[in-house]
Amino acid sequence: MTMSLKIEDLVPGKVRTVSGKTDEIVIVGAGLAGLSCALRLAGKGRKVTVLEKEPVPGGRNGLLSTDGYKFDTGPSVLTMPDLIRDAFDAVGEKMEDWLELSPVSPLYRAFYHDGSQLDVHADPARMAAEIESVIGPDEAQGYLKYVDFVSKLYKYEMKDFIDKNIDTPLDLLTPNLAKLVALGGFRKLAPKAKQYFKDFRTERIYSFQAMYAGLSPYQALAIYAVIAYMDSVAGVFFPKGGMHAVPRALAAAAEKHGVTFKYNTTVAKVEHNNGRASAVITSTGERIVADAFVLNADLPVAWRDLLGEKSWNVSRLRYSPSAFTLLVGSKKKYEKIAHHNIHFGQDWKEVFTDLIDRKRLMKDPSLLVTNPTHSDPDLAPKNRDIYYVLLPTPNMDADIDWTKETPRYQEEIIRILEQRGYTDFEKNIEVAYPTSPLDWQERGMERGAPFASAHTFFQTGPFRPRNIWGENVVFAGSGTQPGVGVPMVLISGRLAAERILGKDPSYRSRAYR
């Protein structure tokens, strides 16, 4: 393979773009990153075709409809809605005309092994009052100082390190880098959090977000506390119709503005020669020609299966832990819970030792229980509720046979739920759908890791696999820059579009208003 990277492409501040015509674009995958990219390309007059193997848009943000229940099969927490709004803005549409979002309050309800609980609120004054009531005034003051810390992290990181195409480490040499260093952003997250929090309850609720980046708080850099800002300060939202309403709305707006969607269409390979792609070939043998291509498949799959190429940078990646999810349609409502509920085990550090170092299931689990019908009862039949239960697990590198382990672990999860206050959980189940790391892998996620490659130092920023290949292929999604999570993949779609269109001079004023 001949790469088209030139010395001039590495000039700091210059964004490398595809070469040649960009009139017609094929996007492989209608996940959130692909949809974000499609809207931006359509807004600039490009002819865009999106090929999606599933019958609906969404990718990992999937939908399972059965027996009157509408289950989200992917992400359950939505933050940073302005990034969704900006995707609509790209085609002159208002998000509110396509999507109804409501703030979730409390953001989370945290339950602890000692019987205490803590409601998490976005408003700092309200949250400080909650912490003072449950823990004490000194902890409340520590929380307010932490809010100041993560707010500065967000300010310094977002424009220069997250929402930006990075071609070389020299692109990081901005005044904000020095500010991040001075702030302590490159220290470990857990000890940094302990500067502000002295109680185990606050420490856990404001550092667990490192798991979204595929790391333990004891391994993650403090810069990943920015994820705590995104949900615990900026707020959590829920769409009417469930999380899948987001990709449905983005796809509908894209169709209105000329984007062609071909569902139930699996791309088998990208046809290319000397670093230039010319067409994609579907599993039925159809050849679709375009000027440039955006691959929204999981990055290792895109390299190995679609391009048929090997990349040292991709092959050496270290992957995040996986997750076991249990989607349940139930006859019982639990009044003590909120929309999002985190049940912490007693031994916090041991959780990460089990998952990451020992590669085994948690002995003392911490788990997330989301109750979508708390906010939108129409997602289930009348007088029925949905529970989305998620437990982190090792990825497929672990010696676990999920064909045998899945039914046993499902029973174990139900037992844990009943121990933690969900009385008669099993007897009230009407439908239940487990998803194991093996299932994630069979859906095209490398190592069965829905959170993609871990955000270790050398898999972050300029060291994360680049989102451009050859002369006219661009990557989008959680495996490339900037990384994992709904906000990140929406940004990823924008950055992919920038690789084709060049910089959008109006973007900053729209996105950071």
Count of helix runs: 16
Q: Can you count the beta strands?
A: 20
Distance between the ends: 43 Å
CATH topology label of the largest domain = FAD/NAD(P)-binding domain
- Please identify which CATH superfamily of the largest domain we are dealing with: FAD/NAD(P)-binding domain
The CATH top-level class label of the largest domain: Alpha Beta
- The average pLDDT is 92
Main β-sheet, in a few words? 7 strands, mixed
Domain module tally = 3
Order of the strands making up the biggest sheet: 7-6-15-16-17-14-18
Q: How helical, in percent, are the residues?
A: 25-40%
Structural class: alpha/beta
Approximately how much beta-strand content do the residues carry? Answer: 15-25%
Shape: globular
User: What value does the Rg take, in angstroms?
Assistant: 22 Å
Quaternary form: single chain
Low-confidence stretches: 1-10
CATH architecture of the largest domain: 3-Layer(bba) Sandwich
